[in-house]
Amino acid sequence: xxxxxxxxxxxxxxxxxxxxxxxxxxxxxxxxxxxxxxxxxxxxxxxxxxxxxxxxxxxxxxxxxxxxxxxxxxxxxxxxxxxxxxxxxxxxxx
Length: 94
Known about the structure:
Distance between the termini: 19 Å
Number of helices: 3
Number of domains: 1
Order of helices and strands: HEEEHEEEHE
Strand content: 25-35%
Helix content: 10-25%
Largest sheet: 3 strands, antiparallel
Strand order of the largest sheet: 2-5-6
Mean pLDDT: 95
Shape: elongated
Low-confidence stretches: none
Structural class: alpha+beta
Radius of gyration: 15 Å
């Protein structure tokens, strides 16, 4: 499937991945963010200079599960956007 359909599925709560990615175990989800705000932790406070505990709003973003199991905010590359090897992960796959 193409990225447009993958994005539609992300908006519906699916996890998606690409067959063309070199590392196994990587996938993308849509993180809804915190539109009503959440108190920021010490790491975010240190990075932003905003006092810990301050309630900040976070907009939705795409989040990648890396091959090592860690998560990172993710922005697709041109190759990702134009790829047609996207697929939906089932509940059994990680």
